[in-house]
Amino acid sequence: MSWNLTSATVNLKGYLSNQASWFVVTGSDFVIDAQNTGGIQGNGQSWWSYFQTHTKADGDGRPIALTLWKATRGTIKNFRIVSPPFWANTAAESTGIIYDGMYVNATNADPLYAGKK
């Protein structure tokens, strides 16, 4: 999923949930406000459990939950990322980005691997 936002406000009151693609935002002068009730549900547990026993030589193919790509003067506000499959978020080739009230939880609950390094 990719959004190109210009002078926009997005009120996100639910969760995005997609295991196949990254949520990529590009553009300028935008605010994404999840109002502490929305964000991304990454279904990470199934990814984490699978990749404990299946590895790939060229990386494991897990998506980054939220990517800001070539964004300018953007704000991500009151945003929740729960169980990201890989990294929770990244800002690449972006300037003037503000994260205000970001919550991330990536707790491994698989009894075979929980608490192990």
TrEMBL record:
It comes from the Eukaryota. Belongs to the glycosyl hydrolase 28 family. It is found in: Secreted. GO terms for molecular function: galacturan 1,4-alpha-galacturonidase activity; polygalacturonase activity. Specific in hydrolyzing the terminal glycosidic bond of polygalacturonic acid and oligogalacturonates. SUPFAM superfamilies: Pectin lyase-like. GO terms for biological process: cell wall organization; polysaccharide catabolic process. This is galacturonan 1,4-alpha-galacturonidase. It comes from Sphagnurus paluster. Keywords: Carbohydrate metabolism, Cell wall biogenesis/degradation, Disulfide bond, Glycoprotein, Glycosidase, Hydrolase, Polysaccharide degradation, Secreted, Signal. It catalyses: [(1->4)-alpha-D-galacturonosyl](n) + H2O = alpha-D-galacturonate + [(1->4)-alpha-D-galacturonosyl](n-1). Its EC number is 3.2.1.67. Gene3D superfamilies: Single-stranded right-handed beta-helix, Pectin lyase-like. One of its GO terms (cellular component) is extracellular region.
